[in-house]
Amino acid sequence: IGTIAVGGPGLVVAGIDLLNTLNAAPGTSVWAK
Q: H or E segment at 12?
């Protein structure tokens, strides 16, 4: 339960970040330097 409580929000944030990266237009991604 402890692991889920701690890892849950982290997975959500990572998932949202991934979705934002995939949805970002080419050249606008945070990974594009």
A: helix 2-23
Q: What are all long-range contacts of 2-10, with beta carbons under 8 Å and residues at least 24 apart?
A: none
Q: Per-residue pLDDT tens for 4-16?
A: 666 677 778 888 8
Other C-beta atoms closer than 10 Å to the C-beta of 32 total 10
Element (H, E) at 19: helix 2-23
Convert the pLDDT of each residue in 13-29 to its tens digit.
Answer: 888 888 877 776 666 55
Contact assessment for residue 30 and residue 21, using Cβ atoms and an 8 Å cutoff: yes
